[in-house]
Amino acid sequence: MAAAAAALLLLALLSASIPPPAVAAEAASAAPHKTYIVRVDRRFKPTIFPTHAHWYGASFLADPLHLLHVYDTVFHGFSALLSHERAADVARHPSVLAVFEDRRRFLYTTRSPQFIGLRNQQGLWSDSDYGSDVIVGVLDTGIWPERRSFSDLNLGPVPSRWKGSCETGASFGPSNCNKKLIGARSFSKGHDASASVGGPAINETVEFRSPRDADGHGTHTASTAAGRHAFQASMAGYASGIAKGVAPKARLAAYKVCWKGSGCLDSDILAGFDSAVADGVDVISVSIGGGDGVASPYYLDPIAVGSYGAVTRGVFVSTSAGNDGPTGMSVTNLAPWLMTVGAGTIDRTFPADVMLGDGRKLAGVSLYSGKPLDGKMFRLVYPGKAGGLAASLCMENSLDPKIVKGAIVICDRGSSPRVSKGQVVKDAGGVGMILANGISNGEGLVGDAHVLPACAVGADEGDAVKAYVSSSATSTATIVFRGTVVGIKPAPVVASFSGRGPNGLSPSVLKPDLIAPGVNILAAWTDAAGPTGLDSDARKTEFNILSGTSMACPHASGAAALLKSAHPSWSPAAIRSAMMTTASVDDNRFQPVTDESTGKASTPYDFGAGHLNLDRAMDPGLVYDLGKQDYVNFLCAIGYGPKTIQVITHEPVTCPAKKPAPENLNYPSFSVVFDGAMSGNLSKTFIRTATNVGPPSSVYRSQVQTGGRGLSVSVKPRKLVFTPGVSVQNYAVTVTADSGVLATDELGAAFGSLSWMDGKHVVRSPIVVSRIQPL
């Protein structure tokens, strides 16, 4: 944790002395040509040009530019293929605020509506009419429109405010849209430009030059957010029942910004944001994150910049927290105007057992649906024992058929997709696979639709089966598949892969915001790929079961659609606040939610405010609202200058004469950061503003929980009185911590909570107190 704290300090120092944005172009590598995104101050456009596109393309500089995308809604500017020298020239133009390289990003790859508190004919589903007429835009890999999840049966006319279109392209046209899927577009110009200078090209033997989904990820996330009821749904018999999205009557618009096998280009993502907001969506769902494990400053992050333009126009944006957990500071999508969603389990699993020749039974999970092993025992092999690291990981061409043929093979998890390892084993003649977690994955398990009999086991079981192979020259095993089991306890549990805090860019904002179902989620799938997504998998399935924060994100997107339908006047910040302050911190045993990677109680670094609970979010009592100026003040507080902030806001800004405190952002959680060089009792006071959205006459009293350990929290006033004429109240929170306790704590942090209660509502906010250690 000391290394993480040092990294936090370095990031804080960097943000306090950010260079002018144009320097981003100067710092680029000297490759011959690359795609760049250019942020332009729209006020500089000469009046002789009818549009910004005419200005950029015709005579922005003496030598006209070949434009890829022109942005004019959430962002003003363009993307273009430029040499390093030309990018530097563009950066020096007086109207240019920033020039930065296009980057490649990647996807973060039913019972869950009930698990988050939704009930038929009552509560939020009923009060919101199932999200009727709210429009959810999904930035992903496209959509497979023929699925039952996208039926428009009994839906009314398309909302009149809709301005989007249904794009014509390969195997896709206007007839593929309906009153449910009301729009679909694809964006590939950035991708194609990158491919022209050596980047990966779109593989048109498997891809569609249209919104049609060749990958499956986009179809899955779209139906999770807003899929219609589909009866007798399952994935090859697993998870059978009624499949439905969180907002079944919401309308969908698909924006294909990611392409199978080659990821998503920033310039295309930004174009997707621009179009979605111009088209009239109410919610944007983005299960995409950084591909290099490093969080970019907000002004260089197209998801942060694009979503700022969306949120400040009233559009709610939900993003995934990333799949690099359980490592600390692995959470992605950190901007405070985003909803950042981590992943938890639900109370359903797909058990499989490894039966060893010595009589022991090891528990695991699997979604294998082919011919079973019927209890027959097979030779057990661990190729890593003699074949080295590649063989232990069952990498391509690493297994010796002479050793593994006819055997069940133990493969270590990591470095390649889990299902790919099974294909490698199958190709080498193996009859089955045991996929063993390493220490970093702990006991966290996800089901996969393997191409051969296979079972995933936790780190302890993996060690046990390897020890058995080492101790016996005649070790044998078989795998028994037990189908679907519902009612599992404990649930939810924070998934081991879910991205964790602290926030590496702005430690004063707690991320993730909350967790939602993201493990073994059943949703619609494409006909263009088998359930494993492998090229060799020719199986077809209407539904598939996937895990990842990609699956958690659309749960929050659908939840936002329901809340927007029930409360049309609520801002994106109010909707996020309602979800966060009503989130659950206990599991279905009424015990604190645990961490799958450790088995111990989770902290706000793992789950933010808790687990999404829509049974309470409909009526949160109080909300913490935010607007443009609040976000501008926050950006000033973390050291961004007016020109840098304008790259994000695309409007000129002025920072307050007195530098604001970042902790004073009116966020539904509290993250208090102290200077690690200080000793003794550390104290900090900050302000929050609560808005009453419950009964006009209400009295709320505060309750603080700290768990001891040298942390105290005081609140003034301790009582908030609301009347028909007073719906907004301020209060101050003072946090005092013992520096010695923080220094010796395993996480370098202390945790607590503040709740406001009126006898009906409990408005809960987590409190995190940490120190930034000196380098």
From TrEMBL:
It comes from the Eukaryota. Residues 35-106 form the Inhibitor I9 domain. The keyword Transmembrane helix does not apply. Keywords: Hydrolase, Protease, Serine protease, Signal. One of its GO terms (molecular function) is serine-type endopeptidase activity. Residues 131-594 form the Peptidase S8/S53 domain. InterPro entries: PA_domain, Peptidase_S8/S53_dom, Peptidase_S8/S53_dom_sf, Peptidase_S8_Ser-AS, Peptidase_S8_subtilisin-rel, Peptidases_S8_3, S8pro/Inhibitor_I9, S8pro/Inhibitor_I9_sf. PROSITE patterns: SUBTILASE, SUBTILASE_SER. The active site is at D140, H217, S550. One of its GO terms (biological process) is proteolysis. Residues 664-769 form the Subtilisin-like protease fibronectin type-III domain. SUPFAM superfamilies: Subtilisin-like. Residues 1-24 form the signal peptide. Residues 380-464 form the PA domain. Belongs to the peptidase S8 family. This is Subtilisin-like protease SBT1.6. The lineage of its organism: Eukaryota, Viridiplantae, Streptophyta, Embryophyta, Tracheophyta.
